[in-house]
Amino acid sequence: MSFESQHQMFVEPFAGGAICSLTVAFEEWAKHVVFAELDDRVAAVWHTILQGNAEWLSQQILDFSLTKEHVVNALETEDGASTITLKDKAFLAILRNRVQRGGIMAPGAGLVKNGENGKGLKSRWYPETLARRIRDIDSIRDRITFEHVDGFRLIERYHDDSDVLFFADPPYTKAARRLYQFWQFDHRKLFEAFSTIAGHFLLTYDNTEEIRSLAAEYGFQTEEITMKNTHHTEMTELLIGNDLSWLHEET
Q1: d(CA 141, CA 99)
Q2: Taking the chain, what is the end-to-end CA distance rounded to the nearest angstrom?
């Protein structure tokens, strides 16, 4: 089994920014991509892009004058609004992700101060790049299905389909509370769900005793990989799957 093999379906139950799903869709490594996210703000972004409003969203980003005053006013407007359109929620979600420290969307995250290369709020605001990326996603939206649901529902739906490749990057055990709105997560439930699926799966996780023990308990294969976090500190993560032989295939 190769991670890049032509599966009929690629399913990412807890997608967030969905970088893996988008890569699979752009590279056509699967016939179709399905991904889910429970967070309302993130879901608004995907609904807006994939339901025909990508150009509107791109233009909002290009037209926004990013100053601290404008950012604070925009985010306060969202926080104090009793109703807000889905499109506006999508734009504000992207803005929040770009100007809050570390891109953290969880409640209580503060604004960037110094930022990358001392550029402050503008250090992660690349309007032309963001707009181009949104338009690119719009161009392949026929290959993508997004659902605003608990990811476990996707696992249940495709549980018996041997042509499905699942990928999951769930909230990590250590940093989840700080990073995510929905940080509470039943890791054992996820391992249990994947232990009986008909297809293949790949998980990425923090390299902790809890996760290593769960992987061993369910007979999953593991591989340590080295990566760097947002502070450029080298650390290891775990790849977990029911078949990781493709990692060692000769290219």
Answers
A1: 27
A2: 14
236, pLDDT greater than 50: yes
Single-letter amino acid, residue 113 = K
Task: Output the pLDDT for position 246.
Answer: 86
Helix, strand, or coil here: 144?
A: strand
Percentage helix, strand, coil for the chain under 3-state DSSP, each rounded to 5? 45, 20, 35
Selection from 6, 113, 25 nearest residue 68 by Cα: 113
Q: What is the mean pLDDT of residues 167-178?
A: 66
Task: Kindly tell me the burial class for residue 233, based on how many C-beta atoms sit within 10 Å of its own C-beta (0-12, 13-18, 19 or more).
Answer: exposed
Q: Check if the beta carbon of residue 92 is closer than 8 Å to that of residue 78.
A: yes
The highest-confidence range among 82-86, 168-172, 174-178, 212-216, by mean pLDDT, is 212-216
90 close to 173: Cβ distance less than 8 angstroms: no
- Single pTM value for the model: 0.85
Q: Rounded to whole angstroms, how far apart are CA atoms 18 and 204? A: 13
